[in-house]
Write the structure tokens for this entry.
Amino acid sequence: QKEVEQDPGPLSVPEGAIVSLNCTYSNSAFQYFMWYRQYSRKGPELLMYTYSSGNKEDGRFTAQVDKSSKYISLFIRDSQPSDSATYLCAMSAYSGAGSYQLTFGKGTKLSVIP
Amino acid sequence: EAGVTQFPSHSVIEKGQTVTLRCDPISGHDNLYWYRRVMGKEIKFLLHFVKESKQDESGMPNNRFLAERTGGTYSTLKVQPAELEDSGVYFCASSQVQREEFFGPGTRLTVL
């Protein structure tokens, strides 16, 4: 079983729709939970990160963490064509070597159709 | 402020050759990381520098990979000799604080 599972999609939605992206994980040691956005031929860009269970909002984006279910979500409200990208979840645990290692999901490719 | 830069953007080499990838982190960032994404797989951690010291190199796949960070500034990742399975995109990231990593655009390596 992979440590982080993420449906690769692709996911296609009409402009203005609410988008829900999800990841599940198996490693209870994960402490920090991130969402990255990656445009084609670019590096991942950090959108949000959370530490505790609950919701965190930033503009049109809401990150949700449920540690009891080992499940995280990213919601995008009023989706725009410019949101079309690959969204990667990532989780961080202390490696025991003085480092917090990021473990990524495979990414979900999102297309927002005008 | 300039972001993380990587050079080259794309490298095509033959099996057995040597390739050196370079990463210039954001100025002032002590933490520098290398990651790799091979075809169809997730982005995987390779190693982490704090200034010029290797903090964690547990993700390095084998001894054909050598990473250095000169004077705590830029970093290089050398693959010698390259094998077919080394093909992929190599990302560098830097941060002031761990967990807030800024990624470069990546170097796409193709080994023929």
Residues 67 and 100 of chain A are 18 Å apart (CA to CA).
